[in-house]
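Before drawing any conclusions, I needed to go through one protein's amino acid sequence and its backbone structure tokens, quoted below without any editing.
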Amino acid sequence: MYVLFAVVGLGVVAYLGWLKAVLALAFLIIVHEAGHYFVARWCGMRVDRFSIGFGPAIKGLSWRSKGGTLFQLAPIPFGGFVEIRGMNIVEEVDPEDVHAYPNRPAWQRFLTILAGPATNYISAVILAFGLYTCHGVPSTERWYGVVDVMPGFDAAGKLKGGDRIIAVDGAKILANDGSPGLSARVTAKQGAPLLISVLRDGKMHDFTITPQLVTGQLGNFLRGALGTARGPAKVAITKWSSNHLLLGISRTRQHDVIDISIIDAGGRALVYPIEQTKVITKGLYGIIAGTEKADPGGPIRIAEEFKNAFDFSLVAGIELVMMLSVYLGMFNLFPIPALDGGRLVFLGYELITRRRANPKIEAMVHMGGIMVLGVLMILVTFKDCGRFF
């Protein structure tokens, strides 16, 4: 009976983890499409459908509003869309219909398209403000934290996962103050024992630990000893082909959480999307330059990352939602056909020249973009599914 309760309990926990992941992914889609929807309605456009997912509506999960918009959940979880009257590239539009997208002023169409990515950025600001106000922000100081201890080392049975290393041989050590790091201090002792002071459960503990000399491919050794690191942030593993002195621990960087004022939280929240955009841009540049490896993922991969983050902590899950909100907004601003950025290019041309681009050419460009993006999404989804087999 107890085993049955344990199995049911684990199943509920796993289910809740995936439920949080799906809700987080749906939040990103709804926020983006809601931006298009509300601005389109504000500009007097008729919105025929608001869909989460692609394809026909799932039976029993659709309803029509008083304004005539059909809200639906669809079975293909590749994203969502807002269907504005006259916006479909193959749709015939009555030139007298003032509520159709093509018949509205160019600046209104521009704002309607821009509203999706802009709302993603705004949602990141709101989430950041809520998180900073209710939870606080990381302190500027970073300490070395113990993730795991490898068997066969002197540190086994002394240090534990969750310990925070405060001092080495009585000298305070931080992970971000520019002073020699933990590895450098271990190497400097040339194999002699070190006095490691750690903070554990609010109390200080001192341990004398003798490093061990390891020979060969250290990266493979660490993988065999530790396996996969816990938590959403993986522990970095570097390969050395020569002898190396080790304490026998895998480590990460820990920090405290400090309270800040509402004004400070607001300032940090406003800056967050800007800073995150710089980080994403730097990463994309690294991929293009070949210094970093691309790791594409579709809805399944994103949902899995959400589950891992929320399983680790609510804060980690919210931080991932914040980051992906900026990423989704930024990606949709790229001047790629079929994306919001591609449409904004044509609208920008119209605003500058006061001449509308050739509708047939624009339709061909967007249709080509839809086909390419569709193929890429299918390939990425197959890649995601392949990781489970």
User: Anything to note?
Assistant: The two ends are 33 Å apart (CA to CA). Confidence is low (pLDDT under 50) at residues 1-14, 217-242.
